[in-house]
Amino acid sequence: MKIILLTPMDIEQEKALKALAQIPNLQNDYEVIVSGIGRESTAKTLMQLPEHEVCVLLGFAAIVGKERNLPVELHFGKPIEITQATLYGYEGGLFENGAPISTVAQTTLPVLASLTSDKFVRTTDLAEQTVVNMEDYTFMYLKKPQDFIVRIISDFLPHETDIDFFEEVKSIDFLEAVKVIEGRLVGK
Question: In whole numbers, what is the pLDDT of the chain averaged over residues?
């Protein structure tokens, strides 16, 4: 089966390719494509994808909450699946046309909801365990029914200290996430 792993950033593409290289005897044919960050980049990329059976949005995720207060399956570097996305307004309000989009879970990963914003959200009073990003809503709006989102937890909101995001995520690998995706799509 032809699977596209769509990553917002180059660093995520590198981590996905490294994870794929570590799995012997892959049962699917993967192509990892960088969409760029944001709703517009995601939309443009989705409209120009090569032929495929399934597309998985795979990338980092900021999650609301303190790691020490979250369940272990939501700690740093852990994969999750997004099954509901909402469009979050530029100044922090929900857009009127940004009603939540929901889908059924495609994996056995923990399932969370996300907010897609036009800008990076650094501090927030959003509900704990909410994922914040810049792509999920657009992907959910344009995806095929079999497509899904897997995110890797990379940081916790609000940040308790300033972070260098790219330094923070150096130690994260995508192997666990890619194994889940491969296992889910074998024999489909």
Answer: 89
Burial of 36 (0-12, 13-18, 19+ CB in 10 A): middle
Q: What is the CA radius of gyration of the chain?
A: 16
Q: What is the distance between the alpha carbons of residues 90 and 176, in angstroms, rounded to a whole number?
A: 33
Beta bridge partners of 88: 94, 117
Q: Indicate whether 160 pLDDT > 60.
A: yes
Between the CA atoms of 169, 172, 178 and 183, what dihedral angle is there, to the nearest 10 degrees? -140
For residues 6 and 151, what is the distance between their CA atoms, to the nearest angstrom? 11
Place of tokens 């760029």: 36
Closest CA to 107 of 73, 74, 78, 82: 82
As a whole number of angstroms, the distance between CA 53 and CA 147 comes to: 9
Total residues found in the chain within this entry: 188
Q: b/e for 50-60, b at 16 or more Cβ within 10 A?
A: eebebbbbbbb
Helices 175-185, 10-21: inter-axial angle, 10-degree rounding: 70
